Amino acid sequence: MPINIERLKMVSIILFLLAILLVIPYIYVQWDPSALIGLDLNTIRLLKVVLPALFFVGVSFLIISIGGLVYIYVYYTPPAPRPIPQPRSEPPEETVVKPSIAMPYGPKISYSLVFPDGTMLKVQGKQFREFGRSDFRGRIDPNIARLISKLHFGIKVVIDESGKVKYYIKDLGSRNGTLLNGTDIRDRGWIEIKDGDIISPAGAINLVFRVETI
Length: 214
Description:
alpha+beta; Tumour Suppressor Smad4; 6-stranded antiparallel sheet; 4-stranded antiparallel sheet
């Protein structure tokens, strides 16, 4: 049965106050025996029996009340609030990539990632290419390169039914995410990219996506 903390607190405070009232008369008589002067012998005998009994009851109340207050303020841990049920949200909308027609492999289609200093990382003849930390070593500061995951993002080339070449990017579960034109694309599946778009792995460096037709 769960403990009602508010009720326990109230009872402990009441017992504490009663304990003080029961203990004080005995302590007062022990401290100043002259307080009994003027009372008849029978009353004094009665008080010598009653006051110790009340003192014992008061001490018991005091121990119980202190135990209750110690439990409340030292040992008691409030139960965690029940989680508020959240409405189910639909997964982020993904760009649907239609089945591709046979790729014209080879150097006919290529693209590049252009670094801020003008150097390029060129990719030719690959339908899918993964990019990670090793691709940026020696090109950016090592401390910044640590923000980029071993496998960070991927780019794939697709030719749709009309024969149009399209490029798609996807974050590969990186630790710090991938930005496309300033928008985090984690958990969004394949997103179409176009010439001139800015890819920022972990927000560490801005790469300009360039399409080259050879």
